[in-house]
Every structure is written in structure tokens, then in C-alpha cells.
Amino acid sequence: MSQSNPAEAPAAYYRHDGQHYIPLPAAQGPWHPDHQNGACFSALLCQLLEEHGPAGMQLCRFSLTICGPAYMAPFDCEVTPIRIGRSVAVFEAVLRQKKANVRALATFARISASPEYGLPDTEFPLPAGHRRMTEAPMTAVVEPILRQGGSHEPGTGSAWATFHGQVLAGTDPSPTVLAANIADFGGALGSNVVKAEWTFANLDIDIHFVRTPRPGWHLITADTVSAGTGIAVASSTLADEAGTYAFARQTLFIAPAGGS
Hints:
Blueprint: E1 12-16, E2 21-23, H1 38-50, E3 57-66, E4 76-84, E5 88-97, E6 99-110, E7 142-148, E8 157-163, E9 166-168, H2 175-182, H3 186-189, E10 198-202, E11 204-209, E12 218-225, E13 231-240, E14 243-256
Parallel strand pairs: 1-9
Antiparallel strand pairs: 1-2, 3-6, 3-11, 4-5, 5-6, 7-8, 8-12, 10-14, 11-14, 12-13, 13-14
Helix pairs in contact: 1-2
């Protein structure tokens, strides 16, 4: 059997050395070079939690709370069952570097036929151009193509995205993991402040799924609101070619750029 050339391996956010998870250059964050990108560890924790999903159940909620910076250094991640029932199961994943830096919860619910109603219509023209939403290191793994708005154009924004790499080296990420990755885009994509003047780092991510997403390109549409008290809320709708599959929210910490 022939061995694959390591040089041809897909780019990844992380690798596992058998004991620890190691952030790779693509996981570097936009706010500080020593910090991981929240979109990257959100995707990793979702992937690890999804692996524990019981048969016959679907992920209906993924929530993540950032308790402190996740550094560009090795870390441990443990997944713990909180509840395992016939209809609902809950698992927690903790990213730990001496302390719990990030906590994530995944709620799974049994799959059962029920009426379909209330989902918004979603236009999903596939990307024709190649205007990247960002040039952050994570684009080695995920391809975000701006449709409208963005961090330099305040107001509602939308972007397509798809994976062309891996979250964890050696494993292919699922469409659900892509959702956890791009849900972090909402604060920047739908920003209503000027990036040169204000920062808008998110403190959390909360995704509610109405169904399991499909492979391929996904579309995120986002907007933000604030009462002028130093925080904002980003609300996003996530869709694939079959329509809307999830709704996401983030709490944003609004602060003057440069710490002034």
C-alpha cells in the first residue's frame, strides 16, 4: 500500500499528538497573535462533541462560552456526558490550558417526524466571484466568500463558506462542524461599527439547529444590535442549498480600537 506524501496533506487548524491538541498556524486569531481564533476552537469542540452524539439523535443546540484567551499552545480537551436519556442527551467539552479556557455544550434530541413550518425563505445563489471576507490565517482551512457587507461596511452582511481543509488533521469535518466554524463570523460580518475605530470580540456562540446541515457551500447572513453600553448581540441565519438549517447568536464586547 502506498503512503501519502505529507506535503500533500490538507491544511488543518489542529493536530493531536496522542496526548494534547496542538494549534497550527491556521488557528491564529485576529485580535492577538498569541491567541487562537474563536472560529477555529468552536469548530474543534463541535467536532469532538458531535463524535459523542448517540445513534438516532441529532444535534439541536451547540453553545460555547469563552472563559479566557485560548493561547497558541498545546491544550487538553475532555468531553463529559451530562445527561443521556431516551430523547435527549447533553455533553460538555472543555478546552483547558491550566484552567478551563473555553466550555462548550452540545444538546442532542431524538429524530422524529413532525410538521414543518415557519422557516424563512433563503436565496442561495452559489458564489460567482472570489472576494474573500477575510485574509485571516483560518482561510487555509475554510473559504469565506463575501456576498455583502463585512467588517469594513457596517450593516447586514452575508457570506458563503466551505471547507477546503480539516479542523483536526487526519479527519474530515462534517457540515455541522462547518456551521460551528462560520457561526463565529456573525459579529464581523454584520458589524454596525467601523473596524478601524472599534473592536468587537465575541464572548460566546449559541447555535440552534432545526435540522442537520448538508455538505457543500453554506450561507451565513448576520446583523448586530447594541444599546450603546459596551456590548452588542449578533444574530445570524445559517443556510445550505436546501434552505435555512440554524440560527445563531453571539455576545460581542465593543471597545475602542487600540485600547483608547
